[in-house]
Amino acid sequence: MNKKNFWKSGHKPTLFGSFLYFDISFMIWGMIGPLAVVIANDYPMDPVQKANLVALPILGGSLLRLVLGFMSDYIGPKLTGQIGMLVTIIPLLLGWLWVDSLEHLYVVALLLGVAGASFAAALPLASQWYPKEHQGLAMGIAGAGNSGTVLATLFANRIAQHFGSWEAVFGLAILPILTVFILFSIFARNSPHRPAPKSLSQYASVLKQRDAWVFCAFYCVTFGGFVGLSNYLTIFFNTQYGLSAVHAADFATVCVIAGSFFRPVGGFLSDRIGGSRMLMYLYAGAGIMLAGIAFLPPLTVVVVLLFVGMMCLGAGNGSVFQLVPQRFGNEIGLMTGIVGAAGGIGGYFLPLILGHLYKSTGSYMPGFISLSLITFCAFTLVIIMQLKWRNSWMQRSATVTDEAVNRIGELNA
Known about the structure:
The chain is mainly alpha-helical. It has helices at 3-9, 12-29, 32-42, 47-75, 77-97, 102-111, 113-116, 119-127, 135-143, 148-163, 167-172, 174-187, 200-206, 210-241, 245-261, 263-273, 275-293, 299-327, 332-361, 365-389, 393-412. The radius of gyration is 20 Å and the shape is globular. Helix content is 83%, strand content 0%. It is a multi-pass membrane protein. Keywords: Membrane, Nitrate assimilation, Transmembrane, Transmembrane helix, Transport. Its main location: membrane. The chain crosses the membrane at residues 20-39, 51-71, 83-99, 105-125, 137-156, 168-191, 212-233, 245-266, 278-296, 332-358, 364-387. Residues 14-390 form the Major facilitator superfamily (MFS) profile domain.
């Protein structure tokens, strides 16, 4: 397997369109995280209220991923993505023109979840064009659209400062989502190999399988950790280290970059050494980094620890979705929604854990210790499951891939 074979094995315009859709949607999904510090100037909030505000878009995304996953299977991921982008404009308009209370903000934050649900359409759209031996890299490239979070942390507070209004950020975000809607409509195509829709009873049967819940647990930690920290880090840097809204978001951006751009690396390396083995290394790395952060070291040190920790979590996202299509290839649309929803639930609870424990103890140490322990639990689980999978579907998948490579070699000869 080589890079040339990968680019010839699928549909590059669709991969590009999926990335753009996911990227701009993630930017919009992650806007409230960095803006929370600025919004607090208009609507004063305690630590728990701030945590609720930045967690609600993640909750909305986790719930709507199930809906968009179902739609992707039935009406196709391209049309689902187009609908998702148009619906995303609604909370942007509300945030720009309607909000005049904290309760209104909560409504807008929850509705922004439709942008986060883009995951359930963008990844199946790209994945269905590529064979199993290239799933990790294909899903990693499309999934690298979570780099949109970088755009949110880098520019949201600067735009709010420039215009003297955080509401303007919501209004201006309508322009890029419309631009991407046009490009996506032009370039993206449904794969001719898209699996036929399954009945509701077949969908229910997927949830009866233990492996579906195991993947949910894995992604709850990797993606939940990434997106939860991405939305909360601006508050963390502002509260713990006294940084301004813009500077706190800048430091958050540095950490988010690691998680975003290492997702394809995680998928690529998982193609080479195996997703379960890669996850084992990544969970260990993330757990150690989170334990170090719990001691609240100087700013420079904590940024390094967060950078490496987020890198491990981001790469872990790619590793999980190197495994999912191999195990649930015929239900990839539904499983993307289910597993993605689990990741969103993890991201929803992470800010709440940090916010509640900070309010009750006055320190972030208990919160980060809790996150580290959760990560090491995932590390233990992946070791157990790896031993079981070697004698079941993982062995069959490897056999099929070897046979395909041998057939290609015979044809070339």
